[in-house]
Amino acid sequence: MEDDSFMEEILTLDRQKERSLLFTSLSEEEYAKTKFSRHMEGEGLIAREERDGTITFLPWKFRGAVSTDEGVFFEGPYFEGQSISSILMNYSREEEKSKEEPEKEKIPDSHDSSRDDLDKDTRENTSCPDAPDSSKKGLDTRALFFLIKSFTAAIHENINLPCNGIFGILYSEKNGKEALFLPEKAFNRSVMNLGKEKYAVIQEPYRDTNLNGKEALLFERAVLAYFSLTKVLPYPPKNGDKSVDISYKNFIPLEYKINGINRKMATSINACLSQNFSASLKKDDFQLETFEKELFNPEERKPEFSKEDFQKNRELFFKKQQKKIGSHRKFNRAKGSIAVSLVAVAFIAIFTANIIPL
């Protein structure tokens, strides 16, 4: 989990003045020169869980820009919540701290009141009687599941939900479960102004700028689902072009990350991570109920292989995968060299024809 200090630079929730501020990372002069105000016009959405468990979407927009000594901020209505990145970082720190404490002082997560600073009476348990009790899980797990549920609802209802990764979404349980998805264009362009290094951490792992519409939603949901179950990103931040990793399917499929994972669900997530959307575009085969059980009740999962066999299978897959990727890269380099040579030959032929007298 990456450091969420970036959010202190870009997003501010001002309770006193009842406003949410997104830092454009531009001075007043730069803001005017680049006509950056045009990026403020997009719409964000608030996803809200109703009493019957369904998700409804409400529009949210920036209403203007304000200038301070730091620079220019987009200003919108106040939303009392935390960024998903901050929630995950807080619980990551708690887990690290708990590992350092003596065993006898540890408190199981399901009974740890410190992991839930919200009044339990304000939450509605909308699950069916035999469904996992999500209220007993930490805020981090509940927030991630709510994102998956919101993306699934948006996909089914053809709603263009902003794709902002975990940094551009705020989550709250103050008045029931709800999340603010900041306007995508404004958030993405503001993050770009922070520089390539920070953009690679905040945006790159979660979205693909080459995708739009339902395909963009399917990809981001798959990334978030994979992360929720494994606590690692399928395409982690690094130097280089992420599209190359995607084209080579350079990630570890879920069935090689989790022993006994539901194969049908894993296949659905793996396909979208590989950007093979054909099946999901015809009919979304992502099973939300299965995902919920896998996420909230991993102890009920039955291992498909022994630990030894699972590790052997994983190592064998990885070796085959890297060999295949190496062959692809070698072929593409050779293809590139041939293309360059053909261009050179064509250029020489044209040049020669122009200088030789008829």
Q: How far apart are the termini?
A: 69 Å
Topology pattern, helix = H, strand = E: HEEHEEEEEHHEEHHHHHHHH
| Largest sheet composition | 5 strands, antiparallel
- Helix share, percent: 40-55%
Strand order of the largest sheet: 4-3-9-8-7
Q: How is this structure best described in words?
A:
The protein has helices spanning 6-10, 28-33, 84-100, 139-157, 184-192, 196-202, 213-230, 242-247, 263-273, 278-282, 288-296, 307-355, and strands spanning 11-14, 19-23, 44-49, 55-60, 64-67, 72-77, 82-83, 169-172, 178-181. The chain has 358 residues and is α+β, with helices and mostly antiparallel strands. The strands form two sheets. It has a five-stranded antiparallel sheet. Helix 3 runs antiparallel to helix 4, helix 4 packs antiparallel against helix 7 (213-230) and helix 7 crosses helix 9. The longest helix is centred in the C-terminal third of the chain and has 49 residues, at 307-355. It is globular and about 60 Å long. The model is unreliable at 104-131 and 334-345 (pLDDT under 50).
